[in-house]
Write a structure and sequence with these properties.
254 residues; alpha/beta; 8-stranded parallel beta barrel; 43% helix; binds glyceraldehyde-3-phosphate; isomerase
Length: 254
């Protein structure tokens, strides 16, 4: 395990914002403010607004280092899937990233690991980077099963062909999302080390370099401590990504 973990060279951190079902046109001013500050940051920024804002947001950040992502895609490129959006459509609208397998979708829409892997493949085919989410529930952690559960999710949710360029992983303990509760740094460290070990064993160098984000109640006040944990290569931020001042405060700590 030590040898595998030592092969990791920390990449530039990725700070991704997940706006969930928030924001209409007026919220684009926040993305504009983020983009205006992005040149001065030493991390990569991705904002994932609702589908309805993607094209406008992509236009706003066109000449800046900020990238735009979506929060889900369908596994098929086209077809009779009322209400769904394909990865090709996202790319066409100007997205470069897509969040896949967020726990809110796994729970609300019963998305299984196999579906997540199929969506990731669709994202790769469309040239998008997939941000694949995994994480245990509180009951699973209390039962001492967090590491096993997350590594099993990771194993079944990543398709063959995942690379450091086309995939980032977001470890989001379900009990930490939107609750103000954050795992102890040692718990994050153990989880990220276990994920790195699994990814390195399966994908070699690519797995060693794949960015591992932490998500769940990240704020400007706790970001520096979280980013100092080994194998934390960034964050997936929900509530604190809605306002430029909050999100930039997190990015400044990266
Ligand atoms: O995708 C983001 C996560 O669900 C974290 O949300 P949060 O930062 O509001 O806890």
């Amino acid at each position: 395990m030590g040898a595998l973990l030592q092969s990791h060279t920390a990449p530039r951190k990725l700070i991704a914002g997940n706006w969930k079902m928030n924001g209409v046109g007026a919220a684009l001013a926040e993305i504009e403010a983020m983009a205006a500050a992005a040149e001065r940051l030493s991390c990569d920024l991705v904002l994932c607004p609702a589908f309805t804002l993607i094209e406008r947001a992509a236009g706003l950040v066109r000449d800046t280092p900020v990238r735009i992502g979506a929060q889900d895609c369908h596994a098929q490129p086209a077809g009779a899937f009322t209400g769904d959006i394909s990865a090709d459509m996202l790319a066409d609208a100007g997205a470069s990233h897509v969040i896949i397998g967020h726990s809110e979708r796994r729970m609300a829409y019963a998305e299984a690991n196999e579906q997540v892997a199929a969506k990731a493949l669709a994202a790769y085919r469309a040239g998008l980077t997939a941000i694949i989410c995994v994480g245990e529930t509180e009951a699973q952690r209390d039962a001492g099963r967090a590491l096993d559960i997350v590594v099993a999710q990771l194993s079944a949710s990543l398709p063959d062909g995942a690379t450091a360029a086309n995939t980032a992983i977001a470890y989001e303990p379900v009990w930490a999302i939107g609750t103000g509760r954050v795992p102890a740094e040692a718990q994050i460290a153990d989880m990220h080390a276990a994920m790195r070990q699994h990814l390195s064993a399966r994908f070699g160098m690519e797995g060693g370099q794949m960015r591992l984000l932490y998500g769940g109640s990240v704020k400007a006040a706790n970001a520096a401590d979280i980013f100092a944990v080994p194998h934390v290569d960034g964050a997936l931020v929900g509530g604190a990504s809605l306002k430029a001042a909050d999100f930039l405060g997190i990015a400044a700590a990266a």
